[in-house]
Amino acid sequence: TSLPATINATVNSRPVVQVTTLAPVCAPATVSLVAAITNYDAATYDYLFTTAAGVTVTNPAAVTVSDGYKAFATSKGTLCRSDVASIPVTINAQPVIALNNNGNIQVCGTGTANLTTAIAGYNTATYTYTFTNAQNQPVANAMAAPAPGVYSVTATGNATQCTSLPATITV
Fold this sequence. Notes:
The protein is mostly beta strands. The chain is about 0% helix and about 25% strand. It has one helix at about 35, and strands at about 25, 45-50, 65-75, 85-90, 90, 110-115, 125-135, 145, 150-155, 165-170. Strands 2-3-4 form a three-stranded antiparallel sheet, with no helix packed on it. The termini are far apart.
């Protein structure tokens, strides 16, 4: 006959990954998945970040694509793994200004130029345009800007608040 044996079992708790909501950003900005984790602790846990499709993220401190990322933490001491935590990331595209005739406007004797005609697909329902002169001063009326001159324009998405790089318009 055998004697009863005593077995001691330790039940370790699973790590819990808590995340904060990340604000949308505008390209070319990046987003840190690490920053989304409340009380991130690399000394105690190993973290794994994946895309929604399960592909490992190689640089979680600087992602450049919108996705529904996932995070897992594994305790270095107990090897217990957390449940998945979702980290939605939105990176909005930077607007691009397309110019008609390479941004060159011809005027005949009026002394003013409509700068908006230089923009292909000019659309105030989608974008807010900011026009400045060569001295970087705002143009009071882009539809009657003094000619001749060199102007700059940027477009800011009304929905995203993302701003384009400046484009040059020459009158």
